[in-house]
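Long-time lurker. I teach an intro course on protein structure, and each term I like to show students one example going from raw sequence to a predicted 3D structure in token notation. This year I'd like something fresh instead of my usual example. Would anyone be willing to generate the tokens for the chain below so I can use it in lecture? Attribution to the forum is fine with me.
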Amino acid sequence: MQISTFNGGLNTRMEPHLLALNEAVEYSDIDSSTGVLKPVNKNTNIGEAVDPYFWYFNSAWLSSATAREYVEYKDKLYWTEASASAKVYDGTNTYQLGITKPASAPSVATGAAGVLTGTYTYVVTFYDDSTGVESQPSVASSSVAPASQQVDLTSIPTSADPQVDKVRIYRLGGTLTQYTLVTTINEGTTTYSDNIADTAVDGHILDSQNYHEAPTGLRYLVEHNGVLFGAVGSKLYFTPIATPYAWGELDFIDYAADITGIGSTPTGLAVFTDLTTYIVTGLTPTDFESNIFDANQGCVEHATIATLKGMLIWLSNDGLCITRGGLVEVISRPKLGKLSVTPLNATVHDDVYYLALADKLIAFDIRFEPLYKEFTGTFSRVGAFNDTLYAVISGYVNTLFTSANPKTMTWKSPELTEGDIAQTKIYKNVYIHISGQLTLEIFIDGLSVKYTNLNGKGVKDINIPQPAERGSTIQFRITGVGQVNSIEYKVLGRQNGR
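-- Reply from a regular --
Happy to contribute to a lecture. Here you go:
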């Protein structure tokens, strides 16, 4: 019997004697891409100190010690944190997501002779001239009735928000049936005399009545079809299309339980609670519709959600799940059984989904044949940027598997039965073709009967001790740094009725 391929990955659900020859009970720190048994390389510390919740944007590392979710949209980076206001980062400055409206209306009074005749009220908004972000309007001023006069505005509110550099003044009345932009003044200017005829105003109609700043404590920020979505408790909030700074107080969908994650699929937005998956369909906020997608699988942690080859993948209470916009499938169940772990986060790099736990990575690799494998280490979080896989380890950013030095791999074979677990056999010799420095442990019927060091290159002939050579199954465990090309063993059937 010979094992010559080692690319089946982990199978911990089935009994060891039922595994395929290329599968393994243990499969740690192994490079599965070539078929032979060899380790991946160690990680490389790039010398960048960061907090666990990290991101790479505009050639710089950003991070936080507080749980944070990031999303890039239209050359800006947005993030949310529990119990804090959402932020937007333009590569230089960080601002609140959305602008808080003016706290009061301006004072108005008739002034010197001018061109205005009628009854008017005014509102003002705060404005970022470089980005077009505008706040909700202030409350309306008291009415004023000029008669061939100008209107003097005083006590125009100011803003401490650094993104606000302008104040827009709108008025309603006369021949203007909607609040219409009169002019834009510099922030900090507290007086203005309006002497612009109705026919000469800018003409822009006020459209920011519902432009609230993002709700405090917004979580799980996701962009889907030009709309930003986020959750506060059981409420799914959303913005208008291409208007990430506008969050309406009533623009939300309320669910029966707290939202635990959000993800974009080709057919709609997946919204998760702990036990249920919903799908939100519709192209615009006015026609959003939410329905139960799967009543048995939810999401345990938003940070485990990623996109792999067009599939949304995440961790539920049962294991890794996927959907392409159709049915939800627990993909890890056939090989790993019920996967009950405490995740940190996940990322995708080169068609491999990496789920970070505190003491290892669990990887789902679909590059060749789908398989599961593990990588040891003490991780804070993982991320993929600019086609490079990173992890925070002991407070520093590391590139994974990039060192010139290999890790120590661990592999444990199936229990090999030659097709009949009930038959007692005699195991004589094991031949293993290796290079490097490895250790081989041999098990007969689950008991360790031989432990030996293997060094150098070529075929090694290992004898099984005669008192332990009889049994129904044989199993191998290899650790170390090197390469295994094949394992072959000789077996004899029962003799003389034994």
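Some talking points for your students: The first helix runs from residue 333 to 336. The chain has a mean pLDDT of 96.
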